[in-house]
Amino acid sequence: MPKTVGVAVSNATFHFDKLYTYAVMPDQQEAVRLGSMVLVPFGRGSKARMGVVLACDEEPEHAKLKYLFDVAPASACLTPELLRLVHFLKERTFCTYYEAVKAVIPYGAQYKPALAADGVTPVLQKQLTRHTENSYKLVGSLQQKPRPTAKQLAAVALLSGGERTQNEMEAHGITKAVLDNLCAKGVVECSKVNKSIDLYSSIPLKNEPITLTAEQQAAYDALLPGLEDTAPHSALLYGVTGSGKTLVFLKLIERCLALGRRALVLVPEISLTPQMILRLKSRFGRRVAVQHSALNHTERLLQWQMIQDGGADIVVGTRSAVFAPLENIGLVIIDEEQEHTYRSESAPRYAAHEVARQRAAENGSLLLLASATPSTESFYAAQNGRTQLVRLTQRYGGNPLPSVQIVDMRAELASGNPREISLAMEDAIRRNLDAGKQTILLLNRRGYQTMAQCDDCREVLKCPKCSVPMVYHKAGHKLLCHYCGTQLDPPPKTCPACGGKLLYRGFGTQKAEEELAQLFPEAKVLRMDQDSTAAKDAHEKLLAKFARHEYDIMVGTQMVAKGLDFEDVTLVGVLGIDSLLFAQGFRAYETVFSLITQVVGRSGRAKDPGFAIIQTTDPDNPVLNLAAAQDYDAFFEQEIAYRKLGLYPPFCGLCVVGFSGPKEIEVARAAARFSALLGRQAAQQPDLPLRVLGPTPGNIEKINENYRYKLTIKCRADKRFRDLVRQTLGLYEQEKLPSKATVVVDMHSDGDI
After folding, report:
1. Is the pTM of this model over 0.85?
2. Where do the structural domains in the chain lie, given as residue ranges?
3. What are phi and psi of 227, to 5 degrees?
4. pLDDT tens for residues 110-122?
């Protein structure tokens, strides 16, 4: 029963982010514990702020302490492991305590300040209030006088079989009014329970055994000791596209559950969850819980509570699912582990890999990374014995890898074809349609036309708030900035700089959809991008329609490139890949290779052979040719040599310190001053390996009217370096430079912030 507590308070800046000591009222001492959500008076005006208890029986800084306003119920308390993750995020990502708290628990499980019925007393209120429902149980007998109604008799008969929710009773024609009447008579008792929710309950349960090929069985056998051992282990399952990695996952999960332990499965993006959920739910049914941002707040909360209460043995989801309150974890799977979406781009800036490794260490779990195109760092670690390497070299069923053709778009233009779809691609799609097969086309640019350029002065029309070109979206007849959301409606026809005529150029998914409809009027075209999948459950519904052959051609952004398995897809096309090939960042080639290899692998996954076409203006590019050959080993040898020569990960850590503010000169000065402070601190540790580049403008110089600068630091990403950065941040705050430019630190950056 703590008398004082150390509380991490919400909205504290980095400089003021510490544990504040509060006294606990005698009537609160039973409810307060480590991890409790609390409401505290803060500052001179004692304004109510949210907080979380991170220490108990703290020594008071002074004799006069403020008392807690309110304490949340025990069900809102963070588990010991989640508490340790809060400290882990705080130390590793330079976030505040409360930013870490908000990362590990979903919005719906959080609380907010409110006022009691008296309109004065500060109290806690749940962010969500409609996640419970009435539940009824029989507690007495129904008197015969006055004569009970037929509905009352039916209600008692139903409840004699056990407790039922209001929804269940209403499904049998028993209204709330009938139930309220029985409660008033003392026959029935009403209580509040969490809504029962079984997402994807329509998926039928399959009980047939999992049959593995000889190669898959060998992979499973190689991984099994790491699963059955109670010590932490890590492994990389490297398998060509279509090799059946998911079947190995299912077999491992089955064994994990048989051992009395639980499994956590991560996928890189929402578009991949439907098929993974289908596989898991059909095998394990209600034992599967789901965590991702496409769920509404209530659904996510109820799933989270189900996990917390021990009602789930398997959790599947995107990056944030790594914080699921799952206990006794025996297996953590990160599918398509090379994807950048596993790294958070807002505070706390964590990498799911790092958090997963921490949870695996705490639980004595097997951490299994899986991909047909592993990240260079993961494969290097496997080659050097730091991670177990397990290979799958053959496609499931013995199907060959697709044959690939590279089309030179310069030759297409020279021959008189101005379209973005080559003659070879057109011919291949037509033959595929005639054969009754399906086609997937990758175009990693949404919108209709991607650039508006003046015909006179050649100036490109940019967002007024950002230093990026605006994109024309034909469906809404507007120009849209994909960074800040600024819209120009209707799109201008003349150049704002000189008054010349604006010409709209470029090729996005909307225009591709239109061009395909013109070329193949008999075909049904499905567009998959951020715009077409914005509605709830859109991913699942559209993919289900494609699986049912309601569409012949699917064109989309990178969400169509990975994890999809459709047996009638025998043709894949890659459009507009050059913009990624020549993008900034040391991972540009790795990204292109992975994207092409993955999307090509969507073709020919059943009995019919697959074919792929890659369109480019650089047909001799070695990255494209290696991707076409599906030769990851050769690509890795080239990439690792480049990384070593340029001193990039895995040969060093890469930390980017970003600065932003409304006045460019002040942002530049703040960045320069931080660099000087860092240099001064580093000079005190001459043996610390460090290389500082910059400050320079960000790859995108301005976003939402804020100018951006960055420092790029090549370092050894260990505690000594993090302490150095933390000391520098403290000095930066003391000089009140945050009033000139905010600063963020990203230890998992690809080279920009």
Report:
1. yes
2. 4-126, 132-194, 214-397, 403-446+508-643, 451-505, 653-746
3. -75, -40
4. 888 998 888 888 9
